[in-house]
């Protein structure tokens, strides 16, 4: 049976996380983005790619598997900056055997506006969902 990545808006993902406290919330951005740009409250950092080389983390799936603890059936919600890396991360988790993986569309910062700024069109922060910095 082929598993498919589920896609939820930030508000939908937040509601899902509230309704499913057993879900694992993964922020797959780089460590620099996670700490200095900010991150959703409750998100655990596991980088899919890391600066300065922006190389793929070969241990990503294993690190998430270890955090999941309960096994591959625990829901996993994945967020990144704009919803692109989290698709790659989510598909990698499905390929690794996870059964319920959700991508947060628009990510933490959302799409660029006409001035090339983020967090002004859509995304977790734009929607006013809980986040912290540092």
Automatic annotation (TrEMBL):
Rhodanese domain sequence ranges: 19-120
Origin: domain of life: Bacteria
SMART domains for this protein: RHOD
InterPro entries given in the database record: Rhodanese-like_dom, Rhodanese-like_dom_sf, Thiosulfate_ST/Rhodanese-like
PANTHER family for the chain: RHODANESE-LIKE DOMAIN-CONTAINING PROTEIN 15, CHLOROPLASTIC (PTHR45431:SF3)
Name of protein: Rhodanese-like protein
Origin species: Hydrogenophilus thermoluteolus
């Amino acid at each position: 049976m082929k598993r498919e990545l589920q896609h939820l808006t930030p508000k939908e993902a937040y509601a899902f996380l509230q309704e499913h406290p057993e879900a694992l919330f993964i922020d797959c951005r780089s460590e620099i983005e996670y700490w200095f740009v900010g991150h959703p409250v409750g998100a655990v950092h596991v980088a899919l790619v890391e600066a300065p080389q922006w190389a793929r983390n070969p241990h990503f799936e294993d690190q998430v598997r270890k955090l999941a603890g309960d096994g591959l059936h625990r829901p996993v919600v994945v967020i990144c900056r704009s919803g692109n890396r989290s698709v790659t991360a989510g598909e990698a988790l499905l390929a690794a055997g996870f059964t319920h993986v959700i991508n947060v569309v628009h990510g933490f910062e959302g799409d660029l506006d006409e001035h090339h700024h983020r967090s002004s069109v859509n995304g977790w922060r734009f929607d006013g969902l809980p986040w912290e910095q540092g």
